[in-house]
Give the backbone structure.
Amino acid sequence: METMCGIAGYVGPRSAVQVVYDQLKRLEYRGYDSAGIAFLESGAIKVFKRAGKLGELGKLLGEFPDDTHMAIAHSRWATHGAPTDVNAHPHFDQFEQVAIIHNGIIENYLELKEELVHNGHTFQSETDTEVAAHIIGEEYARGVPLEEAVRRAARRLRGAYALVVVSRTERNKIVCARNASPLVIGLGEEENLLASDIPALLPYTRQVLVLEDDRIAILTPDEVVVTDLHGIEQPYVPMQVDWDIAAAEKSGYDHFMLKEIHEQPEVIRQCLAGRLDDANNVRLDNVFSEHVWGEIDRVNFIACGTSYHAGLMGKYLFETLLRIPADVFYSSEFRYGDPVLSPKSLAIFISQSGETADSLAALRLCKQRRIRTLGIVNVIGSSIARECDRVIITQAGPEISVASTKAYTAQVISLVLLALHVAQVQEMPGVRVEEVVSQLKRLPGLAEKALELEPQVQELAKKAAEAKLFFFLGRGVDAYVALEGALKLKEIAYVATQESPAGEMKHGPLALVEPGVFALFGATDAALRDKLVSNMKEIQARGGLAVSVTTEEDQITDKAADFTLKLPRVNQNYLCALLSIIPLQLLAYHLASLKGLEIDQPRNLAKSVTVE
Ligand code: M6R
C-alpha cells in the first residue's frame, strides 16, 4: 500500500532505462525509501530493486542495456510494509509474465490474496501490489491481451490505484489503469510516457493527458488509446502544459505549503483508506490487543510543535469520548521533568518526521521505564516509527514545507480513529462509533468546502496585512486549534501572536489590545458561542477587530464579529474544529505571501529538528 510513490514509464526509440531513471529523479521531491525498474531483455522481464535512496538503484544503471525501448520504474514512499528490496516495486505475477508498479491502496487485497493462496499462489512480499500482479497474471495466462487482463483485474479491485503493467511478450506496450491515484500520460513524437506527476514528463513533451478514474490507457510508441473498464474506446483531448519545471513540482502551486494545504481532502481520504468498513466500523491493525486497552489507566501524549497541538486533540478525545485520563507533554519538558509514570500508562508519541530528537529521547526514557509506547508517525521506517512498541502511520504522504499542515490533519484523524478503535474493542456503548465514522466519511468533501473559503481569507489577509499583533482565541477544543493557527502565522509570516483560551484574556493578555490588533476566534463549538461574544466585545471596545471562524448555522458570533469565515457543519465538535485549521493555515500563507516571504523555508527553522 503506497500512497505517494513516484511512477514512470517510457516506450519509444530512446534508451528506456535512462528515461525512466531520469523521470524518477524528477519525482524525488515526493519522497522515497526504495526504488525499482523493469525492462525487457532477451525475451524476459528483468526487475531490479533497491531499498534506500534512488542513487542505490542508480549505481546499477551502467549494467542495464542501453538498447531497451520500454521500461517502467517506481520510487516507493512506504506506508505499509518496511522499505526493503523485497517490498519495493515492480512486482511479478506468479509466472513472471507480467510486472507491475502501483501507487495507492487496494482495499480488498486480503480477500483477493486468500482466494489466490487457495488456488496455489505463493507471494514474495507483504504488498497489496503483488496481489494485483497475480490477478493480472492469471488473466494474462488465459491468453487475453494485456489490456484486457488489466481491465478484468481492475473490475475486481477496490480502493485507490494507479497501476502500470508490462508483459514479457508484448514488447512495445505499456498498459496503465487509474482509480483515484494520480497518473498522467505524456504524448510525444513516436514515443509515449507516463508518470505520477507532470514534472517527470516535461523534458520529453508538453502534451499531457490526465487519465480519468476507471480508465485504462494502452501506450505504444505510435499511439495512446484510452478505454473504459469494458474496453469501449474513450476520446480525449490532451492539454498543453506551459509550466516551468520548478512550478510543475508544486503541481502549479507557488509553494509546497499551499499545495499541501490543498491536499488535505485527499490526505483525509488516504488516512481513512482501508481503516473503515462498509458497516461503519474502524479497523486499525497493529495497535495493542483488547486486554491491553482494558489495563491502561492513563495516556500521555508526547510531542513537539504542531504534533504537540495534535496531542492536545488526543487528550480531548481520550478524556471526553473514552473517559481515560490523559496528559500532553512537550517532549523537551517531559525528558527533564522527572515524570511520574504509572506502569499501566501508555505513552503516545506524535511526530511527522519520526526523527525529532527530543521526542526520540522521551521515547527512550519511556522504554527504559518499561512504559508501553505507541507512535503516530508519518514517515515509515523513521526512528520513532521503529522504536515504538506499536505504530500508526498517518499516510499523509511526504510533507515538504517546513510549516506542517497536512500532517497535522492526518495526525488528528489518526487520533480519532484510535479513540474509536478503543471504544469499539472495549465495547463502550456511550461512543457512537458508527455515527462518527459516517461523519468521517463526509470529511474529505467538507474539507474541500473549507478550501473554498480561500478568496475570503485572501481578502482578510489584505485587511490584516499591516497588523502587528494577532490574537488566536477559542474555548474548549477550538482553543487547541487556535494554538496551531498561531504557530502557523508566527512561523511563516513572522508576526507576533498571543494565543490562549478566550476566558484567559481578562487575566492579563487583554492589556495588549489596542487599535489595529486582529483577534481570530475559533467558534465552531455551538455550546460556547455566547461566551465568545463577550470576549469579542472586550476586544472591539479597545479598538481591536474580531474575526469569527465558525460553522454555517452560527448566528451568534456571526452578528458580533467584524469578519466571519463559515465552515460546513459536521456533528462532532472536534471534527468541526479540525476543519477550522484550514482557513487559519490559508491566512498564514496569504499574509506571508503578501509580505513576499520565503514560506516553504522560513528563517531559522528546519523541517526535522534532530538536535536537542
Ligand atoms: O516531525 P515532528 O512532527 O516531530 O516535528 C515537530 C515540530 O518540529 C514541527 O511540528 C514544527 O513545529 C513545525 N515546523 C510546525 O509547523
